[in-house]
Design brief:
alpha/beta; 36% helix; 6 strands; Rossmann fold
């Protein structure tokens, strides 16, 4: 199984006067433009996903929708609370193992520090390994058997700038 971890694009700053909660912060105009360009980079890499799971927070949802639209995978898009900022990686791993272990390629769209914590747990079995997940970064992890422990290898991690360059080729 290939797990692709995508951190949402650049979002509006926290502002309690504009957004009643952190969940409501959308992507900035720059964030939307950057994610559209990054999604073109994913297309250039010939990426396709059997399932796209996203946090329901607005900025993650918008990121996932941009990718799903560019890759023509809208039917594969689902939202889950298991990718929220405050979610626990073990629960997501068990859910993926239980219901999606038959899939080959899954894209997970979420937030920091959750994404780096999830990657660390799958790569090393530890919750904290220093991995820098910039906004819009995409990582590919491969596992033969998904479990809530060290079970995956990090195959690559690309920054949004690298994805955008790939889309321009």
């Amino acid at each position: 199984m290939n797990l692709y971890l995508l951190r949402h694009g650049k979002a509006e700053e926290k502002n309690l006067h504009r957004y009643s909660s952190d969940e409501e912060r959308p992507l900035t105009n720059e964030g939307v433009k950057g994610m559209k360009a990054a999604a073109k980079g994913m297309k250039a890499l010939k990426l396709s996903f059997d399932l796209i799971l996203s946090s329901p927070y607005v900025r993650a949802r918008e990121t996932a929708e941009i990718v799903a639209e560019e890759l023509k995978l809208k039917k594969q898009l689902q939202f889950t609370n298991l990718l929220k900022v405050e979610a626990e990686a073990g629960k997501l791993i068990r859910e993926l193992e239980r219901y999606h272990s038959d899939l080959n390629d899954i894209l997970l769209v979420g937030h920091e520090p959750f994404m780096s914590s999830l990657a660390a747990r799958l790569i090393s079995g530890k919750q904290f390994v220093s991995i820098e997940f910039k906004k819009g970064s995409l990582a590919k992890l491969h596992t033969e058997m998904l479990m809530d422990d060290s079970c995956a290898a990090l195959e690559w991690l690309v920054t949004p700038k690298q994805l955008i360059k790939l889309g321009e080729i």
